[in-house]
Amino acid sequence: MKKSLIIAAALALAPTFAAAESFQEAFEMNRAMYGTDHTFAWNGKQYTTTHEEEVEARVKPTKANAEALIAKAEAKNKEVAELGFEWKLTRGIIKDAKAAVAEGEYQKALDLAAQAKYHARIGIAQYHYAQKNWHLSVPQ
């Protein structure tokens, strides 16, 4: 009886002992479990599960704001393209964002521009990961 209680307690408490090793892991774990705008603690500090691009897209949906975010997305995409890690779909998303501005759909344009900027930012992270871990791609 005691053994089964100890095993049950260990299994019940096991998830609480599984701590994220890095901020990125903690962010991704909380984002997957709770979605955007969730506050979580990591290493004694409070963070939210919101990407910077989501915050940028929450401005008032005006033509000027949409065009400004599209410009940021284009700049970030240019940066990742120079590194050689541009994602194929990002240019199309920027094109769609510009079309949304032309149609007066400013919130849609903001959302698309934020998505394009996010893809470019992740492409840059992918580049840095590849630079650090290139040896893992070499056959042995």
List keywords for this structure.
SoxXA-binding protein; two-stranded antiparallel sheet; 140 residues; signal; 6 helices; 69% helix
Q: What topology emerges from the helices and strands here?
A:
Layout: H1 2-17, H2 23-34, E1 39-42, E2 45-48, H3 52-56, H4 63-83, H5 88-102, H6 106-132
Antiparallel strand pairs: 1-2
Give a summary of the structure in a few sentences.
69% of the residues lie in helices and 6% in strands.
Structure notes:
- This protein has 140 residues and is mainly α.
- Helices cover 69% and strands 6% of the residues.
- The chain is built from 6 helices and 2 strands, in the order H-H-E-E-H-H-H-H.
- It has helices at residues 2-17, 23-34, 52-56, 63-83, 88-102, 106-132; strands at residues 39-42, 45-48.
- The chain has a two-stranded antiparallel sheet.
- Helix 4 (63-83) runs antiparallel to helix 5 and helix 5 packs antiparallel against helix 6 (106-132).
- The radius of gyration is 21 Å and the shape is flat.
- Keywords: Signal.
**Which class of secondary structure composition applies to the elements?**
mainly alpha
Q: How many domains, in number, for the residues?
A: 2
Tally the beta strands. 2
- Termini separation: 51 Å
Helix content: 55-70%
Largest sheet: 2 strands, antiparallel
Unreliable parts? none
The gross shape turns out to be flat
The DSSP helix count reads 6
Beta content: 5-15%
Spell the H/E element sequence.
HHEEHHHH
Lateral strand order in the biggest sheet: 1-2
Rounded to an integer in angstroms, the radius of gyration calculated over CA atoms is 21 Å
Mean pLDDT: 90
